[in-house]
Amino acid sequence: VDLAGVKPVAQEAEALFTNMDLLLFSLIIGIVIYWFMSRKKPEPIPEFKKIDTPAPTSRETSFIEKMKKTGKNIIVFYGSQTGTAEEFSNRLSKDAQRYGMKGMAADPEEYDMGELSRLSEINNSLAIFCMATYGEGDPTDNAQDFYDWLQENDDEDLTGLNYTVFSLGNKTYEHYNAMGKYVDKRLEELGAKRIFDLGLGDDDGNLEEDFVSWREQFWPAVCEHFGVEALGDESSIRQYELKEFTDINMNKVFTGEIGRLKSFEVQKPPFDSKNPFMAPVTVNRRLNKAGDRHLMHLELDITGSKIRYESGDHVAVFPTNDSALVNKLGQVLGVDLDLVISLNNLDEESNKKHPFPCPTTYRTALTHYLDISHPPRTNVLYELAQYASDPKDQENMRKMASSSPEGKALYQSWVLESCRNILAILEDMPSLKPPIDHLCELLPRLQARYYSIASSSKVHPNSIHICAVVVEYQTKTGRVNKGVATNWLKNKLVTDNGHKATVPMYIRKSQFRLPFKASNPVIMIGPGTGIAPFMGFIQERGWLKEQGKDVGETVLYYGCRHKMEDYLYQEELEEAEQKVVITQLNVAFSRDQEHKVYVQHLLKNNKENLWKLIHLENAHIYVCGDARNMAKDVQTALHEIAEELGDMTRTQATDYIKKLMTKGRYSQDVWS
């Protein structure tokens, strides 16, 4: 076969494939280019734009820049847990205007406190600190970072900073006004100049009177220090202006949410004070078998919330005011409570745009956001006096707001001792007809209420238990006053109609903790509802025992009035004693015999065993309940036991118990 002729055909075919390849390749490239070109119209990956937020400007955390921009020379920082210190700081910043200066109230959590050294850049500048103490001498949540900053920065130079401190505390507590005293001392140590003495407010006495007396002396001292003349302009100064809405989308209106609009309907973790979780109430039962009081046990379901808690923590709940009280206020003031309004800050640079979430209705504001049940403070009376048509009423209201002995006595008897809330004042002063928007501006915010958690997360990971007593009493004017939170909780009934009663809540961590070593003995002292955290402790010790852990002695001292009436959790406690989870159950029934018997009497009856546990076996002591009497009496009893069995002087015994506190072996969760 002659193969010579085959070669050219093969070459031809090879060339043909090459052209074909080129054609196909060009076609594919063309399609790809066309596809890319046609897709180029929309912006590529637009998400980048959303993510790429500008870096925060320095002014957002710079109070110095804000003060310069707005011409302010006085800044009032507040460390506030229940709103009182914030209220006082607002009053002081408003006062500045009356003395020809300009002030602003500020939350230390929102600003860079390292800028304090720069305050001297502003002429006649002054920093005022209204500092409350929380728990066992602790800073309030919003002042924790500031406290840490003060502790850590020894080389900070605050020369040129003028300051003064007003401290809010309660004498019944061990660490009276600790935070205010610390800030006052520490600022001086860092070189700042105190221009007026530390003010000490005692909530066990009359906090309002303490503040008013301090303030009356403080402002003249400031004027003298800066060489400015006190204008003494006593006219009313409005902070917010009213805007009414006649046509608004109701989806844009707040209905009781604390932070984000619709946050009660669309729940998103994490949950905290600005974003509470709506926990369904699964149990609400009366604990006492008889008697005229109502003691209750509630269980809140936290399934799916990602909320974690430890025994000894507190649960904070946001209550609402009694609707009957709200409706009466509307009637007395003659207003439509369902009008949608917004109160807008006249100072556009202020971080606080509204006194409460806006826009909302007057009804929502009075139900969810404002405190209408506590007796109003003197500044509220002073500002409202102008709306009384009877000159005598005007005079009395202004007198009660003054620092004269006569005025103080009148406020003490007519407002405080008579427990007159704002409604009672309006009813008993018929000539007083304030505009509701000004009243809403002046009333303090309704605060969360804290309860010691009565469960252990080891046993109840998806449930938080509350133990509380319903507050209800008759006042000197014959009215019946009801505790806001406890009556609201009492009415959170569990029904089987599919509708679940819910409670807005979050957890506040506490230092009230079981010992790290389960083998350490624990001595728990908690009469009445002071039993709450110990129910959690007992559950946890029982759980540890079931896990095969070596659990030390668990001793409980509990007290109530009558065994057959208000012995709370009797079945649970007796069962725990049978299982030897509680190794000693000591119960004082104060009114079951002629002479009163309290927990402190039982402590002294068992002094040898107690002293052995404390002195030789490293026991941890826990006290929960009333601060004014019980906690003090318990401490005195322990001083006496240490004195007698430890062969100490009274001073040595007091120091011994104090040392237990500093070592974290004597913890208190008390209230007054």
Helix content: 25-40%
Shape: globular
What percent of residues are in strands? 15-25%
Which ranges are low-confidence, i.e. pLDDT below 50, for 5 or more consecutive residues?
Answer: 1-17, 35-59
Radius of gyration: 33 Å
Average pLDDT figure: 91
Number of strands: 23
What count of helical segments does DSSP give?
Answer: 22
* Ends apart, CA distance between termini: 119 Å
Largest sheet: 7 strands, mixed
Structural class by SSE content: alpha/beta
Main location: endoplasmic reticulum
Function: This enzyme is required for electron transfer from NADP to cytochrome P450 in microsomes. It can also provide electron transfer to heme oxygenase and cytochrome B5.
Cofactor: FMN; FAD
GO molecular function: flavin adenine dinucleotide binding; FMN binding; NADP binding; NADPH-hemoprotein reductase activity
Written account of the structure:
The protein is of the alpha/beta class and 672 residues long. It is built from 22 helices and 23 strands. The strands form five sheets. Strands 1, 2, 3, 4, 5, 6 and 7 form a seven-stranded mixed sheet that branches. Strand 19 (522-525), helix 16 (532-546) and strand 20 form a beta-alpha-beta unit. Helix 11 crosses helix 12 (405-417). The chain is globular and about 70 Å long. Residues 1-17 and 35-59 have low confidence and may be disordered.
